[in-house]
Amino acid sequence: MTTAQPINLLNYDRTMMAALMTELGEKPFRATQVLQWVHQYGVTIDEMSNLSKSFRSRLSEIAVIQPPEIIHEQISSDGTCKWLMRIGEHDNIETVFIPEDDRGTLCVSSQVGCALNCTFCSTATQGFSRNLSVAEIIGQVYQAVRRLSKEDRRHDRQVTNVVMMGMGEPLLNMDSVVPAMNLMMDDFSYGLSKRRVTLSTSGVVPNMYRLREVSEAALAVSLHAPNDALRDELVPINKKHPLKELMALCREYFPENSRRRITFEYVMLDGINDQARHARELITLLQGVPSKVNLIPFNTFPGTRYQCTPRPVIEKFQKQLLAAGLNTTIRKTRGNDIDGACGQLVGRFADKTKRRERMLKKLDIKILNTQE
Ligand code: SAH
């Protein structure tokens, strides 16, 4: 006899939940009730008291609420929290919470590892394992919100913003990322405004067109270089979708009268992309694009070939952009003492396993896959 796998209620956004309710012979409006119980109150199926007893027991038979499990927590001296979460049997992902005076930002992963090979990013060194499910993405928010409210209920422990800037390229996992972002913005779940949920992409242009049709979330583009030659090197997907293609879309991504802007992320690499001529090229490139520029001090990691631009040079670069009328900020580096800063997320435990596999391969020792 085969027993069906229970469904995980964390995999359903509102539309999908309404379809599930209909399938189970319930009215679609039950969806909003279930979502509230799951995401806002964090109760078990049995505790969903406005559902009939018989429906609850039926739902318990077929469904579970299963977020990724927190297996390690680190808290930085500046209050930044980093969690290692276990997903499935073999994989781990990292989620980071950054408290600031006026907001609390959660940095969420969309894939285990990443396939894109940006040369300055430590996730790239891990290679790509797999896409995360909706439950594994929204489950990071679910867990963080619960973990933070356990500690205390001060304002600075609230998740007010989510950025899809953890491990992975979110636009190469749209099927899961879009429903998960829907839940972040749904009043019956996390209720964040569309300006407070940001998807960051390295520039997968065809999927940016698709995203625009299905989601109102804010957009950040990892630019990092003002010309194709340099961007080809730093962000290799540029070879497939060069700047001309990327910028043509960025120019008109948000409707003209919306006053919404794309954030362009630009990591500051010493002697590579931080010279006055790069700033000049960047100014030309962004002409007529509704934009904000966020300069990111490079966060170093073991084995990297780059160094961070010295602070005075970053400030000079910023001044040059500001003088040309570009809204430009410098990102505060947070959580550095726990490797929780941008580009430092590698899922360390998984990394060890990978290293071991590579070593065994080198020695030509076969790893027996017990699952086959
Ligand atoms: N794949 C997506 C989202 C993940 S990376 C993207 O490329 O946008 C999130 C941000 O962190 C990106 O802007 C990325 O370029 C930046 N980043 C990666 N490695 C970094 C490092 N070592 N130091 C500083 N920022 C880094």
General description of the model:
With 372 residues, this protein is of the alpha/beta class. The protein has 2 domains: 7-64, DNA polymerase, domain 1; 69-359, Alpha-Beta Barrel (TIM Barrel). The protein contains 11 helices and 14 strands. The strands form 3 sheets. The chain has a 10-stranded mixed sheet with strand order 3-4-5-6-9-10-11-12-13-14, with helices on both faces. A two-stranded parallel sheet has the order 1-2. Helix 1 (14-23) crosses helix 2 and helix 4 (134-151) runs parallel beside helix 5 (174-185). The structure holds S-adenosyl-L-homocysteine. Residues 118, 120-122, 165, 169, 200-202, 222, 265, 267, 296, 298-299, 342-343 line the site of S-adenosyl-L-homocysteine (SAH). Residues 118, 120-122, 165, 169, 200-202, 222, 265, 267, 296, 298-299, 342-343 line the site of S-adenosyl-L-homocysteine.
